[in-house]
Design a protein that fits this description.
Radius of gyration: 52 Å
Strand content: 25-35%
Oligomer: single chain
Number of strands: 20
Largest sheet: 6 strands, antiparallel, barrel
Length: about 425
């Protein structure tokens, strides 16, 4: 019974207290937000795209003669120098062929020398001279006998004999002249034939020397060599050109990429590359490159080729950059990131990425006015640079942008701003990516 009385007393006391004056409303303090000012810098806008590396030169080492592979003078996968001996095919057969060709050359030269010193022309010419003397003598004898015959000292038989002798000597002279012409013609033909045989023998020697030289295969370029495709002791060059190894030149190295038509139009330097107005003194098109595992674009290079036109099927332009690769970081076949400077924006305003908000109207910034009131400022965003974003709109360097606490701030309400240190200086060479 005492417990019931005690509870009733407590209830009456609480009721009496509730009937007193009401509690006064105390407005909560403005939410605390972190603010920062925009910064102004010169920013280069870049066109970013992906590409793939390819070696500057690729050379296949082939067997150009048929033979047994005898020697190997390189380490597979290692660097080789231009002119370095790589492989040797058994040379004995080709050396024998060269010796035989040289012997045939000496035989042809000897035949030419023998034909040159031939006396057949002189013998034929002497025979002509002798026949001419005999003809003159026969004619004189005929004239003498005719004179005696007219004086009736010589008989008709003597006259016939002298005339017959003269005619015989004329015939001998014609025959001697014909023999001389034949000797001259034979001499010239023999000389030409021997000279041709000498030239043919020289060509055979050159071919044999060439075949022998093909037995020793050297590196035509500097580069890295692949594994050997045929083991030592095997027959190579049998019916086709056997690829024994491959050398790729990796320094400098190429990087190929395709760029869309819209991006090409944004990059005037690409459309002018290779035109008549571009000469050797024209400013090259710079390009930067980075791997997926790297931050930024550490490799610097130049665009040294663009296709003459866009691919009609894909609407893209193929470009090629060349980069130094002294440390061999870039390997052929790698996917890489590349970028080309498009335009330089002087005195661009940059704000932290986290200060930007997005609604149905687009992106905006919340600015703290002098009286602590939050203002809504719509902006147009540009490229991103190291965690900052280029913006355009009703923004000035003196504006205090809310960078932390966006969810606690609303336009028209007051906030308690706390200043954040200014962002680090942006390098003039830091590039901006695609929007």
């Amino acid at each position: 019974m005492s417990i019931r009385k005690t509870g009733m007393a407590l209830w009456l006391a609480m009721a009496a207290a509730g009937c007193g004056a009401p509690n006064a409303y105390i407005e909560p303090p403005p939410p605390e937000v972190t603010v920062s000012n925009p910064i102004k810098r010169t920013v280069t806008e870049y066109l970013e795209f992906s590409g793939m590396t390819q070696p500057m030169e690729t050379v296949e080492i082939r067997a150009r003669v048929k033979g047994f592979l005898k020697e190997k003078h390189f380490v597979e996968g290692a660097e080789v120098k231009k002119g370095q001996l790589l492989l040797v095919i058994d040379e004995e057969t080709f050396q024998i062929q060269l010796d035989a060709a040289r012997t045939r050359l000496r035989e042809a030269q000897a035949a030419l020398q023998q034909a040159t010193v031939s006396k057949s022309r002189e013998v034929a010419r002497a025979r002509v001279n002798l026949s001419e003397s005999e003809v003159r003598l026969a004619r004189q004898e005929e004239q003498r006998v005719r004179g005696l015959f007219q004086k009736q000292i010589a008989t008709e038989s003597d006259m016939d004999q002298a005339s017959s002798t003269r005619k015989s000597r004329d015939a001998d002279l014609e025959s001697a002249k014909a023999n001389l012409e034949q000797a001259l013609a034979t001499y010239e033909t023999t000389i030409l034939t021997c000279e041709a045989q000498v030239e043919s023998a020289k060509i055979a020697v050159q071919n044999a020397q060439l075949d022998l030289s093909y037995c020793r295969m050297s590196a035509p370029i500097d580069g890295r060599i692949s594994h050997i495709n045929v083991d030592i002791g095997n027959l190579v060059g049998d019916g086709q050109s056997s690829v024994l190894a491959t050398i790729v030149k990796m320094n400098p190295i190429y990087a190929y990429a395709t760029i869309s038509e819209s991006d090409v139009l944004r990059t005037p330097a690409l459309t002018k590359f290779g035109s008549e107005s571009t000469d050797s003194e024209a400013e090259p098109v710079p390009v930067e490159l980075g791997l997926a595992s790297q931050n930024g674009f550490p490799a610097q290079g130049q665009i040294n080729y663009t296709d003459p036109g866009l691919d009609a099927g894909t609407g893209t332009l193929r470009v090629r950059g060349v980069f130094q690769n002294d440390d061999r970081t870039l390997l052929p076949g790698m996917f890489v990131r590349m970028r080309i400077p498009v335009v330089e924006r002087v005195d661009a305003l940059l704000v932290p990425e986290r200060a930007l908000g997005t609604d149905q109207s687009g992106q905006y910034l919340l600015v703290v006015a002098a009286d602590g009131t939050v203002e809504y400022r719509p902006v147009r965003t540009g490229v991103s640079v190291d965690g900052l974003r280029v913006v355009e709109g009703q923004i000035s360097l003196s504006d205090q942008l809310i960078v932390d606490g966006l969810l606690r701030a609303r336009p028209g309400a007051k906030v308690s701003p706390k200043t954040e240190p200014a962002p680090a200086t942006v390098s003039l060479t830091t590039g901006a990516g695609r929007r």
